Amino acid sequence: MIDLKDFEFSELENFLKEQGEPKFRAGQIFEWLSKGVESFDEMTNISKATREKLSKVSFVSTLKIREKYVSKLDKTTKYLFELPDGNCIESVVMYYNHGISICISSQVGCRMGCGFCASTIGGLYRSLTAGEILNQVIFAQKDIGERISNIVMMGIGEPLDNFENVIKFLHNVNHEKGLNIGYRHISLSTCGLVPKIYDLAKENMPITLSVSLHAPNNEIRNSIMPVNKKYPVEELIKACKDYIKTTTRRISFEYSLISGVNDSEKDAEELARLLKGMLCHVNLIPVNKIEEREYHKGNKKEIRAFCDKLNSLGINATVRRELGSDIQASCGQLRKKLL
Ligand code: SAH
Question: Model pTM greater than 0.90?
Answer without folding.
Answer: yes
